[in-house]
Write a structure and sequence with these properties.
Rossmann fold; six-stranded mixed sheet; binds magnesium ion; alpha/beta; four-stranded antiparallel sheet; globular; binds adenosine-5'-diphosphate; 8 helices
């Protein structure tokens, strides 16, 4: 059996007095699609940043794609992250003035590929997310939903096995949000492991698995306990 993509064992993160995450145990197998759901301030982004190796825990063990991150230097961690994880954030993080094609091509800046090949791959990825007609548009010429699709294209350019999305629909109207969710489902169907952070319980209930977080603790995980009563309509 292959190692889980994500393995957290008793993981904690303290910011001074604030315990943002406490004793979190989580296993994510390759090919899963799941939500991490909870109210604002419950520790969701803290957990995502630790899974994404952007932040190291203050306690516990984190293994990503079989690597214990405590054994890796910052440089080795960056290399693991670059090859394994794609990130999508609520606020898109697109640079003003940079056209979609270049924003996505820049996702492979450190791949060693030449500009022409990076642009060719960027174009094909933008077509994959339904933006073949927006290659040369800058962020201010795109709708919110289109911006998020550019950001997703950039995140999946190198075909990372793990995609982490922190409130990817949080800044979108419901229709654009639905389009972005459809795209995340498609990427999952194509084999990517997808973790979606959300405070939206409807989104969480629409996914095969939901990990509920409250006050820095995993309250329950539908993969462990089955769906919550309010999610099955009882
Ligand atoms: N860099 C930080 N420094 C200090 N406190 C932080 C930091 N990041 C998060 N926190 C605190 O940790 C708790 C969890 O935050 P966060 O993980 O961002 O929650 P969520 O994403 O669920 O809204 C909150 O009390 C927040 O104020
Ligand atoms: Mg957050």
């Amino acid at each position: 059996m292959t190692a889980p993509v994500v393995h957290l064992a008793k993981v904690s993160k303290a910011y001074g007095e604030v315990l943002a995450l406490a004793d979190a145990d989580l296993h994510v197998q390759r090919g899963e699609l799941l939500a991490v759901v909870g109210p604002s301030g419950s520790g969701k982004s803290t957990m995502l940043n630790i899974i994404g190796t952007l932040s190291r825990p203050t306690g516990g063990t984190v293994q990503i794609d079989g690597h214990d991150i405590a054994e890796l230097s910052d440089r080795e961690l960056s290399a693991l992250r670059a090859g394994t994880i794609g990130f999508v954030f609520q606020q898109f993080h697109l640079t003003p003035g940079v056209a979609a094609l270049d924003a996505v091509a820049d996702g492979l800046l450190y791949s060693g590929l030449g500009l022409r090949e990076r642009r060719r791959r960027a174009e094909s990825t933008l077509r994959r997310v339904g933006l073949g007609h927006r290659l040369h548009n800058q962020p201010h010429q795109l709708s919110g939903g289109e911006k998020q699709r550019v950001a997703i294209a950039r995140a999946v350019m190198g075909d990372p096995p793990l995609l982490l999305a922190d409130e990817p629909t949080g800044a979108l109207d419901s229709r654009s949000g639905a389009t972005v969710m459809d795209l995340l489902h498609e990427l999952h169907s194509a084999g990517t492991t997808v973790v979606i952070i959300t405070h939206d319980r409807d989104i969480a209930a629409s996914l095969p698995r939901a990990v509920h977080v409250r006050d820095g603790r995993i309250e329950y995980d539908t993969a462990v306990t089955g769906p919550a009563h309010d999610e099955v309509g009882i």
